[in-house]
Amino acid sequence: MAKQFDVVVIGAGPGGYIAAIRAAQLGLSVACIDAWKNAKGGPAPGGTCTNVGCIPSKALLQSSEHFEQAGHHFAEHGIEVKGLSVDVARLIARKDTVVKQNNDGILFLFKKNKVTFFHGTAAFTGQVDGGWAIKVAGAAEEELVAKHVIVATGSNPRALPGLPFDEKQVLSNDGALAIGAVPKRLGVIGAGVIGLEMGSVWRRLGADVTILEALPAFLGAADEQVAKEAHKVLTKQGLKIQLGVKIGEVKATAKAVTVNYTDAAGAAQSLAVDKLIVSIGRVPNTQGLNAEAVGLKLDERGFVTVDAECRTGLPNVWAIGDVVRGPMLAHKAEEEGVAVAERIAGQHGHVNFNTIPWVIYTSPEIAWVGQTEQALKAEGRAYKAGSFPFLANGRARALGDTTGFVKVLADAKTDEILGVHIIGPQASEMIAEAVVAMEFRAASEDIGRICHAHPSLSEAVKEAALAVDKRALNF
Questions:
Q1: What is the pLDDT of residue 462?
Q2: Whole-angstrom Cα distance, residue 354 to residue 370?
Q3: What's the pLDDT at 139?
Q4: What is the pTM of this model?
Q5: Which end of the chain is less enclosed by CB atoms within 10 A, N or C?
């Protein structure tokens, strides 16, 4: 006999598991289905983010940053390190431990909130009395019936045409996080978030890294001034970044990969590397849902079609996260998950796409929220800009990391903050102040008049806000 639930969530990534927990908090009976497996075949909830994305990449970034600091910067502090080496196996094992801690944490939260978890793949089988019939294929098959279904099946890495991932020589983000030894030569196709972060990890550990990007502009989604600074700094660190390239034939053997391409000047080039990371975007994961059989509509790019409130065209079927329109960000999926759970419970969930922060965890970190300066210019909106360099920040000097700046953009008449852009140490943490300010439609004057602890990196945000009115105090 089928098990009945108020809500069944398909997928336990950041959007799915958060939606399940919030729905349970609101008094609904909830089940969550997820197919991820750990090395032993057990459940590994958390989706791409926890298993092969956000969490493991940050673990490796931290480890490689320690190695970089010990090898190049500890001496500035009077700390001498001799015989420095890296044990890649232990580095990867630590990353795996961090992932497992997060997997286990989600399973604990399910138990705490009385969310029933099913380990397996889920497919719609039809509409029945009481809602939707869902089949779970796992160690044991289950039949569920849900009044509401939330599709949160995430996304998969996009492969180059004719070049599938083997995760040995041609790597997705998954394989890039599990390289067994530091490659002498590493190629990366795509200078986006994944490409830059993974390129940075292995460059710090000793690889000669070349990044090939098809677009003529570096980090086109970021503020131009920030992107220019990032390109300069990352190039100085040793990343070889080529823009405006056109990828041709790629040949992979058991020992190497050769990438033939045309550079920005139109000249034919060839790059031979030991490993190739392909990070050219992600595609929605709807395979196996049996969407066609129940009439779940997908758009021309394969995304589940939803309205502004994440409703699909089917009654009481919702979709969130990477599988729908909008930025493919874990925190965007979480916000949609909470909003949908609250809408199902009769409340008014809310997601503001204008205040979703973006972060790239390179060193320096890059973070922004709101509009870029080039977007405001294109819109013809009158604005004021203020910036403040970390070079003039006391805490940054003490840290020994004065790269970058904070930039605040505000409306020329009302002074409302329209965008904040940061490149520098701990930008990922500092951007939260800007998000809060923009949610409350604060003016740059508001941030400029708020007391910030001294010395702190956050003072640079205050100083940039003051600079909008040309009255920065420390620069």
A1: 98
A2: 6
A3: 85
A4: 0.97
A5: N
DSSP 197-214: HHHHHHHHTT-EEEEE-S
The reported pLDDT for the residue numbered 169 is 97
CB atoms within 10 A of CB 221: 13
Mean pLDDT over all residues of the chain?
97
Architecture label for domain 355-468: 2-Layer Sandwich (3.30)
Residue 178 DSSP class: -
Residues identified as active-site: 454
- Cα distances from 223 to residues 104, 277, 279, 371, in angstroms, run 38, 26, 21, 8
Which pairing describes strands 170-171 and 275-278: parallel, antiparallel, or unpaired? parallel
> Would you put residue 402 in left (φ > 0), alpha (ψ -120 to 50) or beta?
alpha
Cβ–Cβ < 8 Å for 430, 458: yes
**Residue 287 in contact with residue 169, Cβ under 8 Å?**
no
Name residues whose C-beta falls within 8 Å of residue 228's C-beta, 6 or more positions apart in sequence.
218
Chain-centre distance of CA 281, in angstroms? 11
Number of C-alpha atoms within 13 angstroms, CB side, residue 182? 21
For the cut 90, the answer to whether the pLDDT of residue 1 exceeds it is no
Cα 300 from Cα 43, distance rounded (Å): 32
CB contact set of 381 (below 8 Å; sequence gap of 6+): 411, 418
Superfamily of domain 170-279: FAD/NAD(P)-binding domain (3.50.50.60)
Task: CATH 3.50.50.60 in the chain: give the residue spans.
Answer: 3-157+283-351, 170-279
